[in-house]
User: Which sequence fits this backbone?
């Protein structure tokens, strides 16, 4: 049976589960919000602390999608922080107890691979071209770096998503302006990534599933709002014929990061180079399948359902 670790609003999980239902494949959807109010599991010394579902069905593979802690409304901030840590510890214990299973992907490997600096260093070691990059809290070092490039961007070190009162805002990748540079001494340098800005022809999202490569392209340069970050102006993706050697580099990157799945962001520069930007080791992809008909979901199901 496939165990799907997710939450109730994960529409990508819904997308695959609809196919699993059509195929008659056995699965269990483990919604993390239910950890407070449903008898879902046990970990006990009489079973060597191996995770067991309440219904007793054996787990053969696990799709690690997303987690979301239960609603702790009514507790004060200190109590919420305490229980958030406890739920994190519980989930880590569950992952560890299932370490012998087949994962898409191992949560501990995902957490390590989420480090953008680790990604960039790994990609560079594998021969990828990457933008010149700096992370620093030194204003003098940053000033020198910015002056060494004709254009620069700033982007989050981890994630640009900011939840607030039931809504989510997003910090996009943005150009560093002359006004920003001139005002640099007035501000503290919070953690973030600065990179040279590379003029591009278009942008690519490459999805890798167990060595299978699915490529899609967006013409981000055809609208002024999306030239720096295509997410600022939603445009349709199309299927893309990726050169074989670049596809093999994408596969090798995932292997080096220890993940079976990866959503890789690449740009094609004006000079024609394929330049690595970052990889989301648990990125979204369902919209790509719907827009381009690249069959990512079948590859995920095949991986999880073949022992």
Assistant:
């Amino acid at each position: 049976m496939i165990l799907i670790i997710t939450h109730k609003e994960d529409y990508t999980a819904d997308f695959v589960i609809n196919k699993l239902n059509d195929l008659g494949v056995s699965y269990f959807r483990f919604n993390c919000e239910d950890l407070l109010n449903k008898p879902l599991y046990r970990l006990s010394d009489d079973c060597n602390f191996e995770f067991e579902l309440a219904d007793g069905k054996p787990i053969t593979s696990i799709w690690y999608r997303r987690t979301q802690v239960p609603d702790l409304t009514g507790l004060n901030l200190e109590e919420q922080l305490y229980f958030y840590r406890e739920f994190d510890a519980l989930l880590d214990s569950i992952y560890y107890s299932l370490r012998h299973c087949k994962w898409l992907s191992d949560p501990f490997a995902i957490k390590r691979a989420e480090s953008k600096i680790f990604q960039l260093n790994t990609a560079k070691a594998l021969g990828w071209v990457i933008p010149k990059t700096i992370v620093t809290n030194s204003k003098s070092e940053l000033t020198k770096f910015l002056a060494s490039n004709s254009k620069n961007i700033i982007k989050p070190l981890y994630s640009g998503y900011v939840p607030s009162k039931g809504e989510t805002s997003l910090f996009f990748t943005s150009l560093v302006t002359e006004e920003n540079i001139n005002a640099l001494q007035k501000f503290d340098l919070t953690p973030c990534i600065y990179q040279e800005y590379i003029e591009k022809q278009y942008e690519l999202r490459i999805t890798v599933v167990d060595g299978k490569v699915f490529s899609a392209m967006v013409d981000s340069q055809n609208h002024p709002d999306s030239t720096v970050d295509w997410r600022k102006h939603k445009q349709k993706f199309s299927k893309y014929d990726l050169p074989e050697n670049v596809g093999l580099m994408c596969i090798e990157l995932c292997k080096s990061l220890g993940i079976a799945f990866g959503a890789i962001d690449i740009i094609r520069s004006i000079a024609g180079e394929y330049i690595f930007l970052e990889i989301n080791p648990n990125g979204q992809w369902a919209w790509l399948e719907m827009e381009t008909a690249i069959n990512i979901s079948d590859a995920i199901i095949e991986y999880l359902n073949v022992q």
